[in-house]
Amino acid sequence: MSEDRPAISEPIKREVRQRCAFGCVICGLPLYEYDHLVPYSEVGAHHAANLVLLCDKHHREKTSGLLPIQQVTAASANPANARAGQSAAYQLHYADRECEADIASNVYVWPELAEGVMTAPLVVDDTPLVLFRMQDGHLLLTVQLFDENNEMLVQILDNELVYSVDQWDVQFEGLELTVRAAHREIFVRMKFKPPSRVEIDRGHIWRNGVEMELWPDRLVLRPGMTISTNHGVRCPLGIAIGDHPKIGGMFSFGSPMRADHTAYASTEQRVLRIAAPTSLS
C-alpha cells in the first residue's frame, strides 16, 4: 500500500465483512484481506461495494490473473460462507504438552498433559466451554460458545475453528477473534496463542440458561457472583457450573440461577460433552 493511500475505515470494513459473510468469498477461509475489485489506482477511494474479502491464496491468484475478476465478482454476490451457513474450517496450530487458559483473569495451567487426559477450565453441566486434551501426542483445543437461545455460535473442535455467519459481525485479525452481537455488544473476544495458550477476556455467553459475563478482570455468573484472579494447576475442571461430572473442579457451583432455555437437536448433536475423567462423547 502506498504511503498516501488512506486506511480503510472500520465502518467500511465491517460492511464488507457482513456482505462477504466473514470470510474469503471464494473458499470461506476466515483469514482474509480486503481487496479492491476495481484497482484503487483507478477509483482513488475505498467504497464498500468495490471491496471484497479474499484469503491470501485467492488474493494472489486474482492479482496475477489466474483468478478471473468475473469469478470474484460473482462470488462477492454469493459468498461461500453465506451458501454454507457457517465459516470454512480453519485449523489452529496447538501442539505442545503444556496448556494454559486465561478466562477473564482466571488462569488454569497443566504443565505436562498426559496422553488421554483432559482439562476443562470452564464447564456448564456436561458441556465444556473450554477444554484441552491430549490425543496421539497432539494437544487439542475445544471451545464451545452459546447464545441466550442455546445456539452454538462459535465452536473450536479439536483445534478446528468454525463459526456461524448469522451474526452481526465477526472479525479475525492477527491472533484475535471478536464476535459482536450488535454495535458495541461483544458476544466473545478471544486470543489464540499457539502452541499452548488461549485467552478469553470479553464475552456474554450462555449455556442451558446459565448466563455469564466475561471481563478482563472478572467472570460474573449471573445474577451477581464474581470469580476473578484465580490460578489453578493440574485441575481436571476449573470453573464447574451446574450438574457437571464430579471429577475434581477447582470451583464448583452446583445450583446456578437459570433462565428458560431450549435444547435444539441441530445444535446438541454437534456438542462435545464430558462423560468421564479421561473420555469424551
Mean pLDDT: 93
Number of strands: 22
The secondary-structure element order is HEHEHHHEEEEEEEEEEEEEEEEEEHEE
What is the percentage of strand-forming residues?
A: 35-45%
Sheet of most strands: 10 strands, mixed
Shape: elongated
Number of helices: 6
Helix content: 10-25%
Q: What is Rg?
A: 20 Å
Structural class: mainly beta
First-residue to last-residue Cα separation? 49 Å
- The low-pLDDT segments are none
Features:
281 residues, mainly beta, ten-stranded mixed beta sheet, eight-stranded mixed beta sheet, 15% helix, 42% strand
Verbal overview:
There is one protein chain. By secondary structure, the protein is mostly beta strands. 15% of the residues lie in helices and 42% in strands. The protein contains 6 helices and 22 strands. The protein has helices at 10-19, 40-43, 56-64, 69-77, 80-84, 265-268, and strands spanning 33-36, 51-54, 90-91, 99-103, 106-110, 118-124, 127-135, 138-146, 152-157, 160-163, 169-173, 176-182, 185-193, 197-207, 210-215, 218-221, 225-227, 231-233, 237-241, 249-253, 274-276, 279-280. Strands 4, 5, 11, 12, 13, 14, 15, 16, 17 and 18 form a 10-stranded mixed sheet that branches. Strands 3-10-9-8-7-6-19-20 form an 8-stranded mixed sheet, with no helix packed on it.
